[in-house]
Structures are given as structure tokens and as C-alpha cells.
Specification:
The chain is mostly helical. It has one domain. Helices cover 73% and strands 3% of the residues. The chain has 10 helices and 4 strands. Strands 1-2 form a two-stranded antiparallel sheet. A two-stranded parallel ribbon has the order 3-4. α2 packs across α4, α7 packs antiparallel against α8 and α8 runs antiparallel to α9. The radius of gyration is 28 Å and the shape is flat. The chain starts with a helix and ends with a helix.
Length: 304
């Protein structure tokens, strides 16, 4: 029994030496095609299991999930009516006997995709990551760590603006015409709006992240960014106006203003990083006139 700790330590050393020898023989982590297929199958099975568990949770918690989906319509002011159960104004209806079942399946699928997203995103990343270099992995960690929350902000702002959009769109109904909205069409509208609107602003919210990454890579400087700053902010508000289905300027200002604040924050980071870089690595040609010769390095500097 006294030799057990020593045996365990010896086995650990042998295992580390074997792993080290395997890395020396295959430093790039290459594997045959059949191993890639097996790895892909392994990842897909995990993604499918996670999605199935999320769908099951969607069926179990259908009622609170549906309340979240119908809330934009219920909170909209349409013909001086509030709520989603006013006949002829904003009433949701089902047409067929199977529509209620299909509705539960669609809602459960949406809930399953959202709940299982951390797992299937990680599985995709785990399949791709072995083929990346160390520097590429570091940049991808930074990008994913910031892109996912920023995309979530875009989706959230889109959801909050749906009520005002429905207020405008259903308010266009002429007199004498009733609104009997099919549940399936309403659900498709909400999901399409959140995907299109959320993707547009999700990508817009990731623009500041892209600016910072280009600056860290040495491609974009603050001086160059300052020339395009007005055009970027104008493009942000233009995108907000085009993506917003209602002519409400308040929604456009909220969505465009949030992204403009992130752009300003990115500019501050770019300016700070350029100042630190200039302090640590000063430019030897700074301050020279166009017709002035640059100083030649001394003999000691040439040897170094």
C-alpha cells in the first residue's frame, strides 16, 4: 500500500511522456479523413441530444414561452385597444384542428434551439478549433466572447420594438375591416422580424468589435478611423431606419443610438491603444519634413 502513490506518480509521468512524444510526431494535430468523420459524428450526436432535451423543455414550458411570444401584440395599442383578445382588432385565431399541435411543435423547436445554443455552438467550435493556430484561437476566443452578448443585445432590442411596429402595421387597417390574425402567421412574423432585425443589428453591434480587432492587428489606426467615423455612424442610423418597419423615430434612435455608443467606445479603445503603442514603439521618422533626410543609424545600432 505504501508503494501506491509512487506507482500513480510513475504512471502519470509515463502518460505525459507518451503524450509529448505524440505531439512531436504530429505537431499540427492532423488526423485521417475517417477520424474526421468520426469526430464529426460524435459532435453531431451531442448537438442532437442537446436539441432534443431543449425541445422537451419547450413542450413542458409551452405556456410561459407562448406568453413571451404573444406579449408584443398584447402590449400594442391598436384602435385604442390594449390586449390580444379583442375580437376584430388584434384577435389571434386557429383555423384547423391540427394547428394547435403544430403551434406547440414550433414553439418547442424555437425554445430548444435557444436553450441548446451554448452546447451546439461549443460543439461546432470544438470541431473547428484543432485546425487553428494558437494566434487564430486567441483572436477567435475574443471574437466569440464579445460577439455572442452583442448579438443578444440586438435580438433583445428587436423584441422590445415589436410592440411599436405592430401598433403601426395593424393601425393601417381601414375602417370596417377586422383583424383576425392567424397564430401561425403571427409566429412566423415575430420570428422573421427577430431574425432579420436581430441579425442586422447583431452584425451592427459587432462592428465596434471588428474595429477594435483590426486596430489590435495593426491594420486600422485611429487617424484612419477618424476619417470614416461620420460615415460609420450615418450608416448605423440608416440601417436602423431601413430595418425598422414602423416610421417611429424613437425606435430608430434607440437602436441606432445603442450601436453609436458602442462605436464611440471602440474609438476610445483604438485611441488609447494607439497612444500606448506610440509610447512603447516611437516612430523614428515622426516630425520629419518631406524634404528632410532621416538620420542614419549609428554603428552600434547597426550591429545590434
Amino acid at each position: 500500500m505504501a508503494r501506491l502513490p509512487g506507482a500513480i506518480a510513475g504512471a502519470r509521468i509515463v502518460g505525459e511522456r507518451f503524450a509529448h512524444s505524440q505531439r512531436r510526431q504530429n505537431p499540427e494535430g492532423r488526423m485521417p479523413l475517417i477520424d474526421h468523420i468520426r469526430e464529426l459524428r460524435h459532435r453531431v450526436v451531442k448537438m442532437a441530444l442537446a436539441l432534443a432535451a431543449g425541445i422537451a423543455a419547450g413542450f413542458i414550458f409551452f405556456s410561459p414561452a407562448w406568453r413571451v411570444v404573444e406579449r408584443p401584440l398584447c402590449s400594442a395599442h391598436i384602435r385604442n385597444q390594449v390586449g390580444c383578445h379583442t375580437l376584430g382588432v388584434n384577435q389571434l385565431v386557429l383555423n384547423g384542428p391540427l394547428d394547435a399541435f403544430y403551434l406547440r411543435v414550433k414553439v418547442a423547436l424555437i425554445v430548444g434551439v435557444i436553450l441548446s445554443s451554448p452546447i451546439w455552438l461549443y460543439q461546432i467550435w470544438a470541431f473547428v478549433a484543432p485546425g487553428l493556430h494558437a494566434r487564430e484561437k486567441r483572436w477567435s476566443y475574443i471574437f466569440l466572447g464579445a460577439a455572442i452578448p452583442l448579438f443578444g443585445i440586438g435580438i433583445t432590442l428587436c423584441y422590445l420594438s415589436l410592440g411599436r411596429s405592430l401598433h403601426y402595421l395593424l393601425g393601417l387597417t381601414p375602417g370596417g375591416v377586422q383583424n383576425l390574425i392567424q397564430v401561425g402567421q403571427y409566429l412566423s412574423f415575430v420570428m422573421a422580424m427577430m431574425l432579420a432585425f436581430g441579425l442586422a443589428f447583431g452584425l451592427a453591434f459587432e462592428l465596434p468589435l471588428l474595429i477594435v480587432m483590426l486596430n489590435l492587428a495593426g491594420i486600422l489606426t485611429h487617424e484612419r478611423f477618424r476619417k470614416w467615423r461620420r460615415a460609420l455612424i450615418f450608416g448605423v442610423f440608416l440601417t436602423a431606419g431601413l430595418a425598422n418597419p414602423s416610421p417611429d423615430p424613437l425606435t430608430m434612435l434607440i437602436l441606432g443610438g445603442a450601436c453609436a455608443v458602442l462605436v464611440e467606445a471602440a474609438e476610445l479603445l483604438v485611441w488609447s491603444h494607439d497612444r500606448r503603442r506610440a509610447r512603447l514603439h516611437p516612430d523614428p521618422y515622426a516630425g520629419l519634413a518631406d524634404d528632410e533626410l532621416s538620420p542614419l543609424p549609428s554603428a552600434g545600432q547597426r550591429k545590434g
